Amino acid sequence: MSAEEPATAPLSLRQRRRAAATQEILDAAGRHITAHGPAALSLRAVARDLGMTVQALYHYFPSRDVLVTALITQAYGDLADAVQAAVDTAPDDADLPRLVAAAEGYRRWAIERPEHFQLLYGTPLRDYAAPTDGPTTRAMRRMSAIFEREVFGGFTEEQLAAADAPALSPSLRTHLEQLPHYGLGHLPPPATALLMSAWGHLNGLVVLEVFGHTAFLGDHQAEIFRMAMRNLLDDIHRRIPVHVHASDVQ
What we know:
The chain has 250 residues and is mainly α. It has helices spanning 13-36, 43-50, 54-58, 64-88, 98-112, 114-121, 135-152, 157-161, 170-178, 189-210, 221-238. The protein folds into 2 domains: 11-62, Arc Repressor Mutant, subunit A; 64-248, Orthogonal Bundle (Tetracycline Repressor, domain 2), CATH 1.10.357. The radius of gyration is 21 Å and the shape is globular.
């Protein structure tokens, strides 16, 4: 810690107890989701599992939506940790792009925690809406930033602006210009369009596997996934010019 940074005041005993109780409730809710699926989650069920009253639970989570928001935020954080760890621990092998390592970390987490993956990307919970630009959005942005860096790291903004993406309508181009980005800063519309297409491909394959739709591939699902991620990255990088002329940038 630098001399300019103020020391963080230690938590009081009451704050520590509240934090511990809050985490205990989140852990119990997580176990309930693992056992019964996200749709079965309720404050009453979690309170029963903890041997406490619903009224006592309200002191920590005043509604199911507040609890769901905390669980989604925590799940996104765990998933981002898994993706980053996969990148950080990938073998120093030029034949294994870091994007592929990140994607495989994402896939492993989803397969190991299918109910929590379903909470993030399965059927939306009835009557639940995440807070606009709230903690779930901020947690998702962290993971988004990892993939954005691994797909486009090393390219200049001019190269990305000249990427060979399908022609974008003026309204779509304007919309993409206004989207926030979290890994490299500003992304030109062609790069954003390619990134969203890649994300749909990656996540779609994981959804198919987690929900059992590719079980016919048996033990070969990992190989198919790695091949698809390599092809996806190769296709994107082929679309980004090595040399950019002023006439290439729209």
